[in-house]
Fold:
Amino acid sequence: MNKIATSKLKPGMVVGSDVLNYDNKTVIAKGTKLSQTLITRLELYGILSIYVEDDVPASAAPEPEDNNSDIFPASAELEDEQTNYEKIRDTELFKEFKADYEEGRKSLEFHVSEMVDKNVEVDPVLLLEKPLEMISKAGSRVSVIDMLHAMRGFDDSTFAHCMNVSLLNFVVAGWLRWSKQDQEMAMMCGILFDIGKMRVPREVLNKVEPLTENELIEVRHHAEHGYRMLKDKNLPEHIKTTAIMHHERYDGSGYPLRIRGEKADRFARLTAVTDVYDAMTSARVYRDPICPFRVVEIFEDEGLEKYDPDIIMTFLKNVTYTYIQNTCRLSDGRTGTIIMQNPGQYSRPVVKCGNEFIDLNKRRELRIEELT
Structure:
């Protein structure tokens, strides 16, 4: 058997030994053939590596995607039409959003580097100026989600991830009807929550090959690194606790403190959701971005007990609502428009393909593969 980092797993690999969570419960059984959904499940559980069989038998090879593109070919008209996100990227609003985003990311990187290298105090209010300006210009929380989705693939650095999470935190805190002050605190917590990765060697974070055991341990320590970097700074306590608690889980299965329920800081419980969502829906060096509806499906199947119930249900309901009227590609290759949510099954909305209305909650063999 070989021990492989979760980030390097491929569909078709066969699990070499039972994969256990932090409560010693089996997440994936030995002998299971991995699919992309199962690999995503491992990421959701925060499992960084597993054992896989040395040789993958022919029977374990990944099954081809049921694309059926020959059965449902795109019409010439559709091929020439811009997709929803192509249209967004052509707008002046998006171009300005992207420019402001890049300016904010560079400012964050500069100030955090000054704090780490020169022990300079960081002013989170200063760091919020550009993100708050971006929120104001976007005009609505739906527009912010659209802009962030259109940004996917531009930058997968730690600082870009922090920018994304800070914006998402502000949006979701608004959905939760938190006060304006708490919405801005949520944004501050997001902008600094992952800076412990500054203490992880860059060659480890950017490594293409499987990480060694020591490298995996070092990556997991980033939450503690972040807290140590912030604990003596003149910063609100919520920012410091979010840095160390954003990988804690509501059922106690997280790390490094293994606390459960509301013992974790409220802002850390929010960041736990937005961190996972942004990480999964963003491009990484080892995979393409995962469709938001696939991520929501994983949350529904595996993650609801792991997150604050009010936060996760509010998030799933509202984030999927932002995608109503978006075009999408189904797993059978057809394109359509998302027209209606299915309450309680937010990953499986109603999609209109031509003159047909497809209720994905009833058509379980289908799913949304991509937003276009």
